[in-house]
Each structure stands twice: as structure tokens, then as C-alpha cells.
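Q: Please design a sequence for this.
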């Protein structure tokens, strides 16, 4: 493989550079992927702003590509297969092994439907790079004990909030309210499946809006009535919003937290007790979540490509990070390998 391997290297806070690195050497248990497209994730931004990984790490864990070398011990995959990667198995692009902001990536101990998943040709490179974040949303949905008639709030319409809305819609949930301070993102939420939207800057009190749309139910402690909100997916990482959601949820409601918080949050735990709230966190995904994401895309039941707001070539990766960091102008930034 006589070629260069330009790679996006983390050199410190707010310092991501494209450097020439060695082309990875194939091994008997590994595969080499020629990267097609990579998304910039919220985790990448946390690293960009705060560090969190060793200097010299090649970032990028949401990517699609084509196998150009398959080790002799790797079964069920062949040169020419198009794949996406489960980055949690090898820490790919997360500081443990090099990621998708590169021309070539090596995946060690390659196993089909474990750390690698084949995608059909009808799934474009762009959509392939969205399989990983969609799997995050599907995992949260699949681990929340939802009923088909639940009234559901998704707070925060960044990538994870939007793919969660799309996943809910594709799985048959209709009563979805999306919350965000960006009208642009709320419009995307409606396109992807939200029945209604709520902007805290302009739409009044959240509890009043939910009550007007979905009605009210009796509380469990004889304290009047509460908005009929049965479930919420918290994707903002804003402490005040977490507190607000615990206040407006109905009795026996489910709250699933997908966001990462930069500082501790305060809320009244009596809301959890008096309303018997079921609160859980959701991080990562299973192989089944990946396979479901691919199937939903392949069958056309779901299309989350509208969330892609920008494309940059790998050579302009620093600029791409700056645009992704500005939520007023971007939703999901994609980096095209060259």
C-alpha cells in the first residue's frame, strides 16, 4: 500500500491538526479500512474543549469505509465490503486506538457484528457515518420501558436528540414533543417525527404546554394534577433542564439521560419518590442496536441525513471542529476523507 495516511491528531485543547502518519500495517487478525466519511460527535467536542485523551490520539469514531485488507484469520468479511465500526470494542477514535479522521484505519481483532458491521451499498457513506449515533438513540429507546401511547419529551435537538426522535418515530411512537432553543433544530425535529415542539425562550412554561397538548393526570400524593408526560429523553446536559423534567413528569414516568454534564446538578429527590419516577442513564449500545440501525436505514423506514449541515474535506478538519462547536450554525458536521 504505497500511500500516505493524513490523520486528524489531537495535540491539546482546541488544537486538532492534520498530520501525515504511517499507513497501518495489516495483521492476521485485523482489517484495514479506507475511510469514506466521518462525523464529528459531541464526544469529540468534549475532547476538543477539555482534553480527556492522550496527546497524539487520532480522533473520529463515527465513520464508514471500505475494507481494503482482511487478515487471514478474519472470517465472514472480504475486501470490498463496506463497513461501520463499533468504537467501544477497541476504543477506536477515543484515545485508545486511531480513529476515522484519517485515510486508513486498522481494526485489530476484527469480528463481524462485534466491532465491525457490514452495510449495504444502498446506505451511502454519509448515512453509514450516522449508524453509530443512531445506535446511541436506539439503545436509549430499547432500554426504556415505553408504551406505544406514551407522551414523550426529547429535550435537546442536537445530533443525539434528533436521532432519538427519528428512532422513536420509526419504532411507532407518535406523541413526541421536542424541546430546544434553536428554531432551526426544532424544524428538523418536526421533519424527523416530532408531533410538536417547545422553545423555552418563546413558548412559556413547559408544564403548561404539555398539559395543554396532552392533558393532566392525578398526582400520587393528593397534591393536585400533573402534566400527562410519561417519558423523557434528556439530551442537553443542562442541569436546570434535568431538574425541570423531574418536576413536569407524570407519576410512574420514565426519564432516560443520554447527555454528559460538565458539572453536578441539583434537583428535588422528593419528585422521584412521590412520583415513583424511573430514572436511568444510557451510554453506548449493543450489537443488536447497530443491526437495527442498519436495517432501519436499509429499508427506508428512517432517514436522518437531514441532520447533516456541513461537509469538510479532511484537510480542513480544524475548521470543521470550529463549525461543529458553534451550535448556532451547525447540527452535524461530516468530514470527507480524501
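A: Design:
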Amino acid at each position: 500500500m504505497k500511500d500516505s495516511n493524513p490523520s486528524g491528531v489531537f495535540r491539546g485543547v482546541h488544537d486538532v491538526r492534520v498530520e501525515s502518519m504511517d499507513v497501518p500495517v495489516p495483521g492476521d487478525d485485523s482489517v484495514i479500512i479506507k475511510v469514506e466519511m466521518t462525523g464529528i460527535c459531541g464526544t469529540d467536542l468534549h475532547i476538543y474543549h477539555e482534553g480527556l485523551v492522550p496527546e497524539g490520539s487520532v480522533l473520529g469514531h463515527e465513520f464508514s469505509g471500505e475494507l481494503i485488507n482482511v487478515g487471514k484469520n478474519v472470517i465472514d468479511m472480504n475486501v470490498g465490503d463496506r463497513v461501520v465500526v463499533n468504537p467501544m470494542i477497541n476504543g477506536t477514535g477515543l484515545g485508545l486506538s486511531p480513529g476515522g479522521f484519517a485515510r486508513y484505519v486498522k481494526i485489530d481483532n476484527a469480528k463481524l457484528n462485534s466491532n465491525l458491521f457490514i452495510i449495504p451499498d444502498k446506505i451511502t457513506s454519509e448515512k453509514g457515518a450516522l449508524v453509530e449515533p443512531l445506535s446511541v438513540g436506539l439503545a436509549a429507546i430499547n432500554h426504556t420501558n415505553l408504551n406505544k401511547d406514551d407522551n414523550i419529551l426529547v429535550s435537546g435537538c442536537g445530533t443525539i436528540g434528533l436521532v432519538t426522535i427519528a428512532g422513536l418515530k420509526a419504532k411507532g411512537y407518535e406523541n413526541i414533543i421536542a424541546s430546544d432553543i434553536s428554531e432551526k433544530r426544532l424544524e428538523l425535529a418536526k421533519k424527523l417525527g416530532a408531533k410538536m415542539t417547545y422553545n423555552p425562550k418563546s413558548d412559556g412554561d413547559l408544564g403548561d404546554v404539555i398539559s395543554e397538548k396532552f392533558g393532566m393526570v392525578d398526582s400520587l400524593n393528593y397534591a393536585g394534577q400533573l402534566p400527562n408526560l410519561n417519558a423523557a429523553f434528556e439530551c442537553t446536559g443542562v442541569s436546570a433542564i434535568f431538574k425541570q423534567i423531574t418536576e413536569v413528569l407524570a407519576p410512574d414516568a420514565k426519564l432516560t439521560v443520554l447527555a454528559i454534564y460538565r458539572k453536578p446538578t441539583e434537583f428535588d429527590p422528593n419528585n422521584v419518590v412521590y412520583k415513583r419516577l424511573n430514572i436511568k442513564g444510557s451510554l453506548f449500545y449493543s450489537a443488536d442496536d447497530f443491526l437495527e440501525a442498519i436495517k432501519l436505514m436499509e429499508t427506508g423506514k428512517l432517514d436522518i441525513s437531514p441532520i447533516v449541515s456541513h461537509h469538510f474535506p479532511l484537510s480542513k478538519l480544524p475548521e470543521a471542529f470550529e463549525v461543529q462547536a458553534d451550535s448556532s450554525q451547525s447540527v452535524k458536521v461530516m468530514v470527507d476523507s480524501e
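Q: Thanks. Anything notable?
A: The first strand starts at residue 5 and ends at 12. The chain has eleven helices and 17 strands.
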